[in-house]
Amino acid sequence: MAFKPKRASIVFYVSDIARTESFYNETLGLDLQRQEGAEPFWLSGALEDGLEIVFFQMEGRRGDTPALVFDVTEGGIDDIVADLAAKGVTIVTPVSEAPGGWSADFLDPDGFGLGLWQAEDKPRSLR
Which positions fall inside the VOC domain (predicted)? Predict the structure, then answer.
């Protein structure tokens, strides 16, 4: 199975989601929307060119984000992660539950964190 990303989001882990919401909406004039499925709420919005930006409040350290997260639009996240591991890719976080679906994290050859996200209504395996 050859995975070819069609969509991606930039994801930020922040220390104060309300402060982030105020800054991006009021100071920068973006239209971030509150989303449910994580505690506390999370934020998402799109720039005019269609690039989605997402913000979650969680523990982290500087350098953990932003992260580029590829959408698995057709499903099969388990297969994709297995294929990446078979090719020697370092899997940082195996397929795990995420708001609205499933996610996994891995490293590129230089150690940059990348991720996958798949909606919960898609099959985890296509094999």
Answer: 6-119
- The count of structural domains within the chain is 1
Q: What is the DSSP letter of 4?
A: -
- In degrees, rounded to 5, the angle at the alpha carbon of residue 117 between the alpha carbons of residues 95 and 109 is 75
DSSP state of 61: -
Query: Is residue 105 included in any domain, yes or no?
Result: yes
Cis previous bond, 94, omega within 30: no
Residue 54 structure tokens: 């997402």
Q: Does residue 2 fall inside a structural domain? A: no
Confidence (pTM):
0.77
- Sequence-distant (≥ 6) Cβ neighbours of residue 44 within 8 angstroms: 9, 32, 33, 35, 52, 53, 54, 55
Under 8 Å between Cβ of 6 and 73: yes
pLDDT by 10s per residue, the chain, length 127: 578 888 888 988 888 899 999 989 998 888 999 998 777 888 999 888 888 999 888 776 555 667 789 999 999 999 999 999 999 999 999 999 998 999 999 988 878 788 999 999 999 999 8
Range of the domain at 27: 8-119
